[in-house]
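User:
Can I borrow your eye for a moment on a structure tokenisation matter? Would you put together a sequence-and-structure record for a protein of your own picking? Please set it down just below, with no commentary around it:
AI:
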Amino acid sequence: MMGHGIGTFLALGFGALVVAFIVYLVIEAVFLYLGAKLAGIEKATFGRSFLAALLLVILMPIFGLIFGLIFSFIPIIGHLIALILLFIVGLWIVKTVFDTGWIKAFIALLLAFVIAIIAGIILGALLGFSLLAFL
């Protein structure tokens, strides 16, 4: 019987990472889809929500790094400026993908965030997890 080499375990780990990433994108897309529908965005589809979630996951860390490096030299308010600009980039992504206005994009993101929090609380209550377990 042949043993498995390190390559097999690396491949399994990478496969698990890809599956976890796709599951994360689908869950984020569901929350974004619900937020967009509740915000009254006419062109809200699950496909657009998935694309927006994918772009958010890819572009937000890149812009976060760029803005963080640029504004980290400004004492006290530099990180706040970077955070505000990063939020505007996220709004722009949602606005562009859903072909909507700034206000509806903001409402969609806000509702998606609230729905995700509510879902987390409900799942935590159903599964018996304490919300204070990680404090």
Q: What stands out?
A: The two ends are 47 Å apart (CA to CA). The mean pLDDT is 89. Residues 18-127 form one domain.
